[in-house]
Write a structure and sequence with these properties.
By secondary structure, the protein is α+β, with helices and mostly antiparallel strands. Helices cover 55% and strands 18% of the residues. It folds into three domains: 85 residues, Helix Hairpins; 50 residues, SH3 type barrels (Roll), CATH 2.30.30; 82 residues, 2-Layer Sandwich (Alpha-Beta Plaits). The strands form three sheets. It has a five-stranded antiparallel sheet with strand order 4-3-2-1-5. A three-stranded antiparallel sheet has the order 7-9-8, with helices on one face. Helix 1 runs antiparallel to helix 2 and helix 6 packs across helix 7. The radius of gyration is 35 Å and the shape is elongated.
Length: 278
Amino acid sequence: MPVSQLAAIEQAQATAIDLAIKFGPKLVVACLIMAVGYFVSHWVGRLTEGILAKLELDVTVRVLLVRIVRLLVLLLFAIMALQNLGIELLPLIAGLGVAGAGAALAMQGVLSNLAAGFTIIFTRPFRVGEFISIAGEEGQVEVISLFNTVLIHADLSRVVIPNRKVAGEILHNYGQIRQLNASVGVAYGTDLNQALATLDGILAGLPGVLKNPAPLVQVATLADSSVTISVRPWVSVADFPTAAGTINKAILEAFRARGIAIPFPQREVRLLDQAAGG
């Protein structure tokens, strides 16, 4: 091997040894700082989660705040590790600022979803488990994340709505219960007090119908062939898809048993005598 190559190798080895002696201990200390920061962030996160649980905050808000606290603790220890290595932070922060501005321009849609997600989480116009109608869709809220909201339809399908489509829209929040809007017609000769009492008894005996708020049963309209009675009970969101069928079946069976007639539309047709008309 030529003498020049041996000299170059020896110089590289000497340089590596010098760097190891100079930065090795600092690198080990920086790794220890980050390891300590990892455990401290989890400890602070658990402490924060316990405090937030006592405040009875929403689950989504608690998870978000705990993650932010852990990230801030890790960031603090990362700054300490970089300072231990002797890295100048001001140029690094300036570079990150320029890169962040470019990334923000390229990710406007994502950032708008993120901003809307923070708005939803902190203002809490709806919560997980509630039934809502928004942006032309309706369903039970399954997940509220920083970027989208997931609804469950009655057919168990899922609808994922970007948060920017949720924030600022008109929201109909049904909460945990919904009101059915059913009706039944009875003949004009029917004893209305008996019919209303029968409907009250039916609703009181059905397990899915809520007692509070109380069901609304009243005469709604006087139609051509019948008296229409409005039946509007409250049921839970989970029972809503099947409640209408159960209530209609119970009404029909009870009316048949008590002889209460449910009339059907009738039309009287008269044929005029053409000869007499002529």
